[in-house]
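Bug #77: duplicate submission created two jobs. Keeping one. Sequence:
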Amino acid sequence: MITVTMPAHLRDLARVTGPVQLQIDAPVTQRAILDALEAAYPMLRGTIRDPATLERRPFIRFFACGEDLSHEPSDAAVPVEVITGAQPFRIIGAMAGG
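Kept job's structure:
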């Protein structure tokens, strides 16, 4: 099982109170995680990725194992610790400004 954490506004939209667990078949990639998340919580479609291009929305970042995966290819495998459930896949709202 993959554990996914989300910021409060996405948890509220999905009507969950904490991390979510997703069963994902190999290969486990960012795209596979987001596809499974949007399938389980259809109200999240279009909030994390553009629905037409499936590109990550601005000000949304993906982290795992202390690393920013936001600019990695969406079909690249996520770290083994995420795949084994030892570490969560984190979706974080980025901040901008000065």
